[in-house]
Write a structure and sequence with these properties.
This protein is an alpha/beta fold and about 675 residues long. It is built from 30 helices and 19 strands. The chain is globular, with a radius of gyration of 28 Å.
């Protein structure tokens, strides 16, 4: 264990180094090592001041989340940080913390136990625990208010966003920014300090936190809990505040929300592992790209590529369409510049990477060609036949189709093994999800390339199999159908949407439908009459038909499930009820949530059964990153496991639906989707 923490002596300065790569997480052994080193140096008469520094690329990026998982599962005990922190704070010699990279979570708590802190200019500090459903548990909520005041501490602990060294300096969290070598700077600083200064002895500046409280979601536990803990610092002595923090921490740790958020945190890594595609599968380097179709999706995909530094040719059929597409791209970049997210020159650089054209010039050099033309199989086959004549042999041929048969598209070429679906979500320059659709014969390096590309675009690729609507959209149809049936039976669109946003969905189903376009849904239903009964149980709801016939296409026509004012603000519309409502039963929010969410779960089980999705976690990631499912519920399949599959199965039968065979079996066996999936 010794090697995790080492110390050395530089004149009259003792230096403690933490060496637990890659991020110096405070795993078991590290706090103990720090404590021992502090005691050893404290006892040395030649040492006057102690400096603590992180070895490698960072100070301490946080606790080891795997250890939390063990504790939650009842297999371990909480790593004891407090003894190490008290050893530092109570040390008779001044302790200076030297921060580079990040001091996050337990890392910042460690730093705050020191008497002084210096940091490099590019360092960041923060208390991001709320992102996994926790609050700082090692004094962070008590020491931070003493350094930065209650207001700043409340903001940092409740929102979890890291701040820069500069901000930390202004807030009083660090004492100095060091230019040049950190250790040298820290040692020089250490020689100048007057004596010890225990953070816990500093007075707390109280503040009104009601403004922050108002910004928090009432059903999200950890941020509110963090606020409570920070406020305790202003009203209680330090030791009592620590006890309060511990109680609140424990309550969060054993909450369903914490389990769900930790699941969501690890889920993105889990989906990157595809059992039959080992890590060493060769990939085709993507240096140049080409996109066919400069519409909503093609433009967004071109931006995503340009943002990642990949030059991209963007082709459309005529100048007018191309100009429209480019105008949208320009407008999007201008918006980023106006909001300060991008400098004007960076935006120009990105725009310059996008080469608009009507012809096919340069396509022979492209490493990947992504097709994003209208959703028509005949048209896509035509485009792929043309692409194939130009593309080099090792070019990946991708389609952005959201509903069409990828194998049929691949069959339009003589190299179907090079064809793959890359289903981006709208707006493609923003949304992180890419469903990667492997066809029957897609070769493994092509799949690995698509995954690597998604990663380099800072997106999350989830590999799925070919099938109507793939995973996300296919599950959406029964969900939407239930929403419509609820309105037919007596609910209002605004009640349904509110019940589901209260549940945590980013948007309700009717808000989504109006944004995507009723005409789009209608067209899909027309084109796939055979798919609908299979995909959606039975598409008994007729709302879409009626709205379509009334010309209510959604936001684009000023009316859909809602009416819209000039600012596109939705207004409940009694005309919709007159059009679609058949009954006037009072419907509870609970019924709305159960019917809509269990429809997702039941269809998700079918998707698993058919092997369209590989694992429950793949479905979860798709819904978390592409459909606004709340992370604190972990995704639809994780949520189902938490609720209990037997209960869901019973409700499915009560609703008169056909249960997925997998749901039935796993519920009977008393298992969870997750446990069923583990060998
Ligand atoms: P869009 O209608 O906005 O754009 C299609 C573009 O393709 C138009 O600019 C059109 O001029 C161009 N085009 C048509 N034929 C062409 C050809 N032969 N060669 C070159 N360009 C041609 O459509 P959108 O929404 O961008 O959809 C594109 C694809 O993305 C479709 O397959 C759609 O299903 C899929 N998709 C759409 C999503 C959305 O939210 N709009 C989400 C995910 C996928």
């Amino acid at each position: 264990m010794e090697h995790l923490v080492t110390f050395s002596i530089h004149g009259d300065i003792g230096v403690i180094a933490i060496n637990n790569p890659p991020v110096n997480a405070l795993s078991s052994g590290v706090p103990e090592g720090i404590k021992a080193a502090v005691h050893a140096l404290e006892a040395r008469p030649d040492v006057r001041v102690i400096v603590v520094i992180g070895g490698g690329r960072t100070f301490v990026a946080g606790a080891d989340i795997n250890e939390f998982v063990e504790v939650i599962a009842g297999r371990g005990t909480m790593p004891a940080l407090h003894p190490a922190l008290f050893a530092i704070e109570d040390c008779a010699k001044p302790v200076v913390m030297a921060i580079h990279g990040t001091a996050l979570g337990g890392g910042l708590e460690l730093a705050m136990a020191g008497h002084y802190r210096v940091a490099t200019a590019d360092a960041q500090v923060g208390q991001p625990e709320v992102k996994i459903g926790l609050i700082p548990g090692a004094g962070g909520t008590q020491r931070l208010p003493r350094l930065a005041g209650v207001a700043k501490a409340a903001e940092m602990c409740a929102f979890g966003e890291p701040i820069s060294a500069r901000e930390a300096l202004d807030a009083g969290i660090i004492d100095k920014i060091v230019d040049g070598d950190l250790l040298e700077g820290a040692i020089a600083f250490a020689r100048s300090v007057p004596g010890t200064r225990r953070t816990r002895d500093l007075p707390v500046t109280p503040a009104d936190t009601s403004e922050i409280r108002r910004k928090l979601r009432p059903n999200l536990m950890a941020p509110l809990a963090a606020l409570d803990a920070v406020e305790a610092a202003a009203t209680m002595p330090f030791e009592e505040g620590l006890r309060r923090e511990r109680e609140i921490f424990e309550r969060c740790l054993h909450s369903d929300q914490c389990k769900a958020l930790i699941h969501a945190f690890f889920a993105e890594r889990a989906v990157a592992k595809i059992p039959d595609i080992p890590k060493d599968t060769p990939v085709y380097p993507i240096r140049q790209a080409a996109v066919v179709g400069a519409g909503t999706m093609g433009g967004g995909i071109a931006m995503a590529l340009a943002n990642a530094g990949i030059p991209v040719r963007l082709k459309d059929t005529d100048q007018a369409a191309l100009d429209r597409g480019l105008a949208t791209i320009r407008k999007n970049y201008e918006r980023s510049v106006k909001s300060g997210r991008l400098t004007a020159s960076a935006a120009e650089e990105r725009i310059a990477r996008i080469a608009p054209q009507i012809g096919w010039e340069g396509f022979e050099q492209a490493d990947i060609i992504i097709e994003a033309v209208f959703e028509s199989l005949a048209l896509k086959k035509e485009v792929f036949a043309a692409i194939e004549k130009l593309a080099k042999a090792e070019c990946v041929l991708a389609s952005n189709t959201s509903t069409l048969d990828m194998d049929a598209i691949a069959a339009a070429t003589s190299r179907p093994q090079m064809v793959i679906g890359t289903h981006f979500f709208s707006p493609a320059n923003v949304m992180r999800l890419v469903e990667i659709v492997r066809g029957k014969v897609t070769e493994k390096p092509v799949i690995a390339t698509a995954m690597a590309l998604a990663k380099s675009l800072k997106k999350v690729g989830v590999v799925v199999r070919n099938g109507f609507g793939f995973v996300g959209n296919r599950m959406m149809f029964p969900y939407m159908e239930q929403a419509q049936l609820l309105v037919e039976e007596g609910a209002t669109p605004e009640q349904v949407d509110r019940a589901l946003t209260d549940f945590g969905m980013a948007m309700g189903p009717f808000g989504v439908a109006d944004l995507s376009g009723i005409d789009v849904f209608w067209r899909i239903m027309q084109e796939f009459p055979q798919e609908f009964p299979a995909a959606a149980g039975s598409m008994r709801a007729s709302g879409i038909e009626k709205l379509y016939a009334a010309g209510r296409y959604g936001q684009k026509t000023g009316a859909g499930w809602y009416r819209y004012d000039q600012n596109r603000k939705s207004i409940p519309d009694p005309d919709v009820l007159a059009l679609v409502q058949k009954g006037n039963r009072a419907i509870s929010d609970q019924e709305i949530v159960e019917r809509c969410i269990y429809a997702l779960v039941n269809e998700g089980a079918k998707v698993l059964e058919e092997g369209i999705a590989l694992r429950p976690v793949d479905i979860d990631v798709i819904y978390l990153t592409g459909y606004g499912f709340p992370a604190y519920r972990g995704g639809p399949m994780f949520y189902a496991d938490m609720v209990g599959l037997q209960g869901i199965y019973d409700r499915v039968l009560q609703f008169g639906w056909k249960p997925a065979a997998l749901l039935e079996r796993v519920a009977r066996e008393g298992k969870t989707f997750a446990a069923n999936e583990r060998p």
